[in-house]
């Protein structure tokens, strides 16, 4: 009975997560459409209001012409001396003539106002384009400087560059994907798996064995550098759940051993053949993550790590702590789970 309740609760949790993901995708699509329309109106608001003003002017013109036409159609019996196309109208009916002159003046005044509005709109549009060009230039300059600092020999400078790129991505959403790709490439280049020597040659078996012995003597060595951890966390912060950029984020063959990132959201990302040995992934979201051949030995996935629908075939998960982890619909084909602590795994 207890197992049945556990399965039902796991299934309900999965259905809830799927519903939440669908609602998130729909809301994101709706937000994208509304944002696109808002941006279009913001960029073309001068033309929008000019078009609206011209339409109003034409409607008023039609209205006034209709009034003049109806003056003759509905009152054909009016004396000749009171018709506006007769000179006697201007001399014999000065009050009506004054009203007509005021109406015609207002008509042409409205036309002049529309023309002035359009010309002012042209000037405003040009100023906006110049301002946007200046902003784009500043963003480009900041981005270039931050990327240059990523290659600095001091880790503190590189760390500052990573957070500067995060700020740029938030200030300029259209540059976000480029920044994510840059940080992902930075991780793959500076923390590859298998590790490489400074001359670029990969570690051989004896090098890996020596490194393993050093780690056994000092477990604190099994931690990624601060800048690598920061870059990984920044990437996950920049990409909301179910973002279209997530499946394109390439962290394959990355050395993330000992990563301390509880609650991190790595869902849908490419983590094939990456090394997450002894990583602290408590409450991490790895839903639909691509982790074929990845190393999760002795990783901490308890409590509450979400590995549902993850591709874990040929993964090495020996001695991993997965108590209360969610493995619902996870692909574990040929995965090594020897000595893994499963406990109350939801599957």
In a few lines, what is going on in this structure?
The chain has 347 residues and is mainly α. Helices cover 56% and strands 0% of the residues.
Summary tags:
single chain; 347 residues; mainly alpha; Pectate Lyase C-like; 0% strand; elongated
Question: How would you characterize the overall build of this protein?
Answer:
- This protein has 347 residues and is mainly alpha-helical.
- It folds into three domains: 44-142; 155-190, no CATH class; 192-347, Pectate Lyase C-like (3 Solenoid).
- It is built from eight helices and no strands.
- It has helices at residues 2-43, 45-74, 87-92, 94-150, 155-171, 176-190, 205-217, 226-238.
- Helix 2 (45-74) runs antiparallel to helix 4, helix 5 runs parallel beside helix 8 (226-238) and helix 6 packs antiparallel against helix 8 (226-238).
- Share of β-strand residues: under 5%
Amino- and carboxy-terminal Cα gap:
16 Å
Number of strands: 0
Which word captures the global form? elongated
Under the CATH scheme, which architecture of the largest domain would be assigned? Answer: 3 Solenoid
Structural class: mainly alpha
Instruction: Look at the structure and give the CATH class of the largest domain.
Output: Mainly Beta
- Whole-angstrom Rg: 34 Å
Topology pattern, helix = H, strand = E: HHHHHHHH
Supply the number of structural domains.
3
Helical fraction: 55-70%
Number of helices: 8
Mean pLDDT: 79
Unreliable parts: none
CATH superfamily of the largest domain: E3 ubiquitin-protein ligase SopA
CATH fold-type name of the largest domain: Pectate Lyase C-like
The major β-sheet equals: none
